[in-house]
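Subject: complex prediction, re-run

Hi both,

The earlier run crashed halfway through, so I resubmitted it with identical inputs.
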Amino acid sequence: MIDLYKNLPAFLPEFMLAILSLSFLLILAFHNKAQNKFSSIFVSATLLFILFVEININHDVQSHFSGLFVSDYYTIFMKSLVIGGSLLTFFIATGKATIEDEISNEYGLLMLLSVLGMMVMISAGSMLSLYLGLELQSLCLYILAAIKRDYFKSTEAGIKYFILGSFASGMLLYGMSLIYGFAGTVEFNEIAALHTSHSLNPSFGLILGFVFFLVGLAFKIGAVPFHMWIPDVYEGSPTPVTAFFSVAPKIAAVSVFLKILLVVFVDLQNYWQQIIMFLSIASMIFGTFAALNQTNIKRLIAYSAIAHIGFILVGLVAGTEDGIKGVLLYMTIYLFMIVGIFSVILAMRREKIELIEIENFSGLSKTKPFLAAFMTVFMFSMAGIPPLAGFFAKLYVFLPAIESGFYFLVIIAALTTVVGAYYYLKIVKMMYFEDLAEEIDSPISNQIKSVLLLTGLFTLLFFLNPNPFLLSTAKAASILFSG
Amino acid sequence: MFLQDHISEFPILSAIIFLPLIGSFFILFLKNDPATQNQDSKIFALWISSITFLLSLLLIIFFDRGESSFQFVETRAWIQDLSINYKVGVDGISVWFVLLTTFLVPICILASWETIQDRVKEYMIVFLILETLLVGMFSALDLVTFYVLFEGVLIPMFIIIGVWGGSERVYASFKFFLFTLTGSVLLLVAILVIYSQTGTTDIVEITQTPISENLQYWIWLAFFASFAVKIPMWPLHTWLPDAHVEAPTAGSVMLAGVLLKMGAYGFLRLSIPILPHASIFFTPLIFTLSIIAIVYVSILAFAQKDMKKLIAYSSIAHMGFVTLGIFTGNIQGVEGAIFQMLSHGIISAALFLCVGTIYDRAHSRDIAYYGGLVKKMPNYALIFMIFILGAIGIPGTSGFVGEFLTLLGAFQVNKILALFAGTGVVLSAGYMLWLYRRVILGSLVKKHLKEILDVNKRELTYFIPLVFLVIWMGIYPDFFLDLIHVSAESLVSNYSGEKLTYSIVTH
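This time it finished cleanly. Structure:
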């Protein structure tokens, strides 16, 4: 008891989230006719509260449970992004128009539990806790993808995600066991220290294990060639779930990815740099070209997500502190843009039926000028056109790569943004240049409006004062390089 | 005197840059009453842009004519960790482009007064944002600031062509956007490379930091990719005729008047001072492309059946003179190029307005559709004549000064070059006068033109200042050249110093 109390400050958010989500489960069990309204308020409030606690805990490096759980500014930053992103994606789905058919009580519960898994995963200091967190979040996500049981695409998405996800987890686990076999430990610190001593000649088994490990993680972040699940899962899952998928798990996975590469296996940088470069180039090229002919907005976002992972990896290839700062900034800005885009998609309904074809956007600027204006801002920002936020995201991953001498990589990245611009412009074209205006449901829920305003203004006005974001991302990135 | 003392403290350049943006913000929140909203936003936008123009006149009044470096400089910290600043300032070259922009925007708004009936409010907002971006770009003294504004221009222009354009507007706007973006992203990569080499984004500081020669070639090519698309130089010009034909009249005016100058301005401001070695190395390339633009594209202009397309091709040919002049590297050539840009900014804008005037009445851009307009529209015929003569470069018009100086510069470098460029003048006389002959002269036999009306007061309001400027610039060019001279001379003297070392090293 005393030990627990001493440990409280650092894992307080996880602890409270566990308590709150379990009590939510109990409430649901005893009042199984609990109102949707109650559960949406409960889940939103919980996430908001956890976010508040997370931001306010001690920023110093703390290690608990004999190194299983580590907390520092980096993990706090990443966890805040995860919780904030989950909160926003949950919040936009709680509006009147969407609440009955999309949001069931289980949705909130599973979301809370998967956020808990992600938080554990981000803070993991050992392979055991990493795997524990990863599986907790993955299992919740599989169910979430299939939560609309009577809709065959959703079920398909769930099954597909489950099979491919378990396969990746298996890879990961196999890699972990190899690493354990050759390193003799599962602790990150010890593995890192181990091959510092004889880094010149790391054992073959360790490298093999590391590669399996990397493949498993690459699957989780959805980099080509481990991306196959993304389009189907994005398309099939209910839209609020897709919104959640495109933000929180991705940030959590990237966070682990960075930590594993830059802290645990930093001495194998010469080995992994080439792998990451391949993943990056393949993701950018495949993602952008595959997105060109999509007619379904969710599929298009899925392919563009693959391309964006490619851009994010450009910063990682650079491998410098500035590069990681760029990655973190990219994630932050991407979070705001993607939440904004999904708010627009959620608002696109006609007689309560979702409109997810790109054609449905035609003439939107006539019927809903503000919605169309915000969507335009997001689209140009996704394409990386200055002065919108997306441009700065790209700037901050390109510059470190240039400084590390990866000119070729940056030129490919820059040229793929041009190809990418085409499909973002296609949506702008639909909204502004076409006239087939059909009314969409009015009014748009207040939740969507407020989130849209927040994310839209962020994207539009980021250029006015980017410095606070740069400072905190720089501070978070420096943690990875301090050991 | 009071004004004189306080002008140094007042951030006049920022005021000119941001006034239109603030204005557009207010238009956004104008009362949403369909009856008055359109009229209100037009009047408001006209006021804002006129005040901006008057403010920019202050730049000329308080400009220190003996000073070759930047004036009205303002620096504010922007992105601290990369020490990128918001830094603006003008010299004798850029001040004219600022003025050209602020002068053309009110004209554009007047020209759209009756033709734009759909989404008037949005139209005005987009135009004012475009003005902010353009003025900011011409006065930016920081590479990243420059790039942000340079590429930001794509968004409003894409929307102007796409929303208010003609029947093929989607194709034209996409082509415009993607062509320019391809060049621009390479410019971004080059800017990042420069930053990683010099550690600063301040254009003045970078000019003083030598960049290794091998790297210069690559950076120059990336710059070239961006600027050559914008100018546009043959063979990257194919987006321009489409964009011009589909854009609304005011869009064409901004495109031909200001946007085409961005590329050439980039060469002047960035390529030549920062990469002198590579600029000298690639001069033959520029000369070849310029000559092709002047001769070949002029011949293409003969074959056009669409008036806007013809003027678009003539723009490409005229911009050929500009690139030719810039890379001669002597004072006549550079001054001629700058003057030619200003003159072309006025004349091509005016020509597009002329086409717009009859398009509003008859709804056709086909040359064959017209004929004998002089009978019904005598004033229009006179105005059109002046601009046609200006485009040809008849002495007494602004076009003459620019072309003459450029040819003079080219002659010093290579006589054959000047000979080819000279044929461009002859060709332009051919296609322009032929256009005039087919549209204005002859007898008025076509029935649909019997009722056509002459220019009205609103149109005269913007045609008269344009006519006045064309003649003023032709008769008394010194007023303009004085300011240009000092800055151009410092540019040329640095460049020719580099040229000397280049020839010593290579021979």
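Chain A has two domains: 10-264, 268-483.

- K.
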